[in-house]
Write a structure and sequence with these properties.
Blueprint (H helix, E strand, L loop, with lengths): L7 E3 L2 E3 L3 E3 L9 H9 L4 E4 L14 H19 L4 E4 L7 H10 L4 E4 L17 E6 L2 H15 L6 E4 L5 E2 L4 H5 L6 H15 L8 E4 L5 H9 L4 E4 L1 H4 L8 H9 L5 E5 L5 E5 L2 H7 L25 H10 L22 H18 L3
Parallel strand pairs: 3-11, 4-5, 5-6, 6-7, 7-8, 8-10, 10-11
Antiparallel strand pairs: 1-2, 9-13, 12-13
Helix pairs in contact: 1-2, 2-3, 4-6, 7-12
Amino acid sequence: MKIEFKNLDIGGLKIDLPLIQGGMGVKVSMSSLVSAVSNEGGLGVIASVALGEGFGDSSSDFKTRSRQALVSSIRETRGKTKKPFGVNIMCALTNYADLVNAAQEESVQVIISGAGLPLKLPSLIKNRLTKLIPIVSSARAAHIICSVWQKRYKRLPDAFIVEGPLAGGHLGYSREQLDDDKHFFLDKILVEVLAVTGTFANGEKKIPVIAAGGIFDGKDIARVMRLGASGVQMATRFVCTYECDVSQEYKNAYLSAKKEDIVIIQSPVGMPGRVIRNEFVKRITQGERIDFDCAYRCLSTCDNKKVNYCIAKALINASRGEMDKGFAMCGTNAYRIDKIVSVKELITELSKEAQRCLSEGAV
């Protein structure tokens, strides 16, 4: 069967290209980037985490401001695109339910949820118009979600994103698994998740599986689509675009990174995280307690009495360009980026190369 790099059906929601821009926080993927991706035919995604800093009335609590900031970002995005877009809401957030509610009240078409198993997500959704996409790192996680959702809520995910160990940001793998590339790699996990979704498929209803983590170019896209992926999610490539909302200093960290600068740290979230090494990263990995004052209480998995830095503050600082007080998260291939391009240029390049590889059989 001929495979083409076009059309992604997420529970009846039609996306022109099978390309999702991964949600990147804090304040990396906001209205400018998200709307640009959607306008070019992909699915742009707002990252909802820790948006309250610097937003609105500082006398109100952080979670209230975070909800208000998310609503504002959704409305700004809608003012820039008529195409569908989504919101990424991490399960580990202490205001998870509130942000899910805000997203559906604003009629966001897609909610993507990872950093834990979103087993209760359907209970927070008032209608079937909002499409739900869990992020998983294993077939076991996909099976649990399908089983629980089907039994409790009489529904299945509208799609899955399978995130391999080469992804950026927080990773759903142990340090040991990240070092074991014989058993833990995207292609293998993708095929295993496809087997799970096949067992839950109802008649002609298919659960699309989106491959993520280490997808860098059209060759990578063609490879995973030949394995059965319905599309891809990419995040790292979109940081170095003119439209990306983050500071120029953050983008410069990508442009100057060498392969050996991309390292794994243990995050206060309780997961490993992939970042670009700088002086701040060196200090925290040595155990130094840095400017610690948890003003946010944003993560249910973070024990602020035990950790030596606040990751929300570090990422907020980095988004502003204060790289001496934070760090840039990234995928394993970030060092391969050598210039800033427009979203249109990037998506055109990816689309042409993916389609050529799919047509020629070259991977």
